[in-house]
Amino acid sequence: MRIALVASLAWQDYRRDAWLSACSVLALAAVIAPLLVLFGLKFGLVSSLTERLETDPATREIIPLGGGRFSSALIEQLGQRSDVSFAIPRTRQIAATAQVGARVLEMLPTAAGDPLLDGLPIPKGLDQIVLSHTAAERLAARPGDLLEARFARQVAGRVEEQRTRVQVLAVLPLEAFPRDGLFADLALLEAAEDYRDGGAVPALGWPGDEMSAVEQRVYPAFRLYARSLADVEPLRVYFAGQNLLVSTQANTIAQVQSLSRNLSIVFWIIAGLALAGAFAAMLAGALAAVARKRRELSVLRLLGFSTAALLLFVMVQALYSAGIAAVLSAGLYGLAETGLNRLFVQVPGEHASHLLARHYGVALVAVLGVSAVAAACGGWRVARIQASEGIRDV
Amino acid sequence: MLNLCAVHKSRGVGSQRYSLVIPALALRAGEQVAIVGPSGCGKSTLLDLLALVLAPDQVGQFEFHQQDIGGLWRADQQSALAALRSRHLGYVLQTGGLLGFLDVRGNIALPRQLLGLEDDGSVARLAEQLGISDQMGKPPAALSVGQRQRVSCARALAHAPQLVLADEPTASLDPLNAERVMQALLDRAREQRAACVIATHDEPLARASGLPVRRISCRRDADGGVTATLGEAC
Ligand SMILES: Nc1ncnc2c1ncn2[C@@H]1O[C@H](COP(=O)(O)OP(=O)(O)OP(=O)(O)O)[C@@H](O)[C@H]1O
Ligand SMILES: [Mg+2]
């Protein structure tokens, strides 16, 4: 028996029963569309939350607490770990500020790969800086401007001061660093550290004591970012093992991750119950269809349809319903998505309700599969249809 | 081609029992016969047996197209029976038996499609002969009962089967049309060298069409049940 012929006969019968067919489509769509909306909300909200966490580098920052003693080699080694995306030494508190204009700015070391300066030019040498948004506002500085940075020290009760010209390479967006800050090459911070220690900085022509080159510089801290959210907690554990207390966002991350997991569980419970209900409805529908079409089915049997072909006839009709219901549900979901995304206030680029193409694909396959199985179970009764029963009353 | 010997079929029990006995029935290719008898005597039951849709209870011999039908029923070989029906049988049901979801053309063409046969114009030719050419696009529900029976005749002949069974094919037709349809049916069957069994209560029409007539006679048994027996040609 040719499948195409059976499918075409099934379609003609399906079309003639348009009203009943529409009912079964609506019954299915009534289950699928709300499930899509539910899943869209779950996926949209959870991925918004995790995206927010992932795009904000501050979530991945690991801040050492209390002073330590780190060599540059050790920090370089940390930076090369596969779970670390960026690590750079920090100089002592003494070199943590610079006076620019009338403002005292926090100074931070930076280098290529700094997630805070993502997409911006990296300051190099002693004469380039990147300003934070608020600092640039207060100084009315714009990229390309030349500024004067002043560093003061007290030597034997006398206040001394040196200045150097620096160029503003770029200004950070507000969300990257909310305070008054200045990002510069580590060399500039080391120069400030040396100068405030009373030493000379030959590179800038600043006078002072000769610094011994033999002694290796020791850093009290570092700026370090984990490569991904999932790397934060293992790194915390690693540092704890090294007897180094660190502060991380591991708690926030864990909360979001457990929220996501719990929402998934809730969703799958609801989806499972709803699909079981849909399965029962489709099974009943298939049983009713076999009973209703008994006369037609027995005529087809008389004309030589095998049991398999009759079963296919019933299953194909269920698949038609499932396919149409899936498309209808996707359309209804699309409407709901637009409405929901308008209803929930949100940051641009984030969605309260959102589905990917593969979600639609999985939903379609699941609906078709469940319908086919339900129809096969319900339609199994066609095997018992005898041509002699039905043909008497057609 | 068709050969039955001592085939029994019973339905119901006690005083509701109805039994059909076929002592002997043999048909060669192209041979035609009419079965007559009063309403309820078992004409449709006999045709259902011959159409391989009703399982016989006892079989002395039941051979169709070199196949042991009794054996196929005993072994519950439904698909083998279905294949035989589809290829070699055309059955005009008493009630038409048209598929409501296909139009007239679709109904007539279906047996050929099921066999994967191309339409060689026989659908249109049959419709012409049976006077239903102008009804081809209609659904069966929009036809008169007589028209439905003619469509059913066309469907039974469309795939040139070896055995054509017709259950009261002219019951709902006026005498003129009855004769025309009966003649068309018999002519086509003769053309195709198909054996033909026609059940009718219209014995004069059967005789006028030149068919040998076999009568089913009923007798009430001691238990209140009925036994019907297919008689010899008379
Ligand atoms: N499913 C059934 N169960 C029990 N008895 C049945 C069944 N079908 C038919 N019968 C009985 O079998 C007998 C023969 O029925 P059948 O339909 O073959 O008669 P018929 O000769 O075709 O009559 P008509 O000329 O009215 O069509 C009837 O007495 C009927 O009551
Ligand atoms: Mg009858």
From TrEMBL, chain A:
Highest taxon of the lineage: Bacteria
Protein name: ABC transport system permease protein
TM segment ranges: 18-41, 265-290, 302-335, 360-383
Transmembrane helix found in the keyword field: yes
Organism: Pseudomonas trivialis
Residues annotated as signal peptide: none
SUPFAM superfamilies: MFS general substrate transporter
Record-level GO cellular component terms: plasma membrane protein complex
GO biological process: lipoprotein localization to outer membrane
UniProt KW Transmembrane keyword: yes
Keyword annotations: Membrane, Transmembrane, Transmembrane helix
Automatic annotation (TrEMBL), chain B:
Protein name (database record): ABC transport system ATP-binding protein
An example Gene Ontology CC term for this record: plasma membrane
Domain ABC transporter: 2-234
Family from the record: Belongs to the ABC transporter superfamily.
Domain of life: Bacteria
Keyword annotations: ATP-binding, Nucleotide-binding
Signal peptide extent: none
Any single biological process term in GO: lipoprotein localization to outer membrane
GO MF annotation, one: ATP binding
Organism (species): Pseudomonas trivialis
InterPro entries per the UniProt record, alphabetical: AAA+_ATPase, ABC_transporter-like_ATP-bd, ABC_transpr_LolD-like, P-loop_NTPase
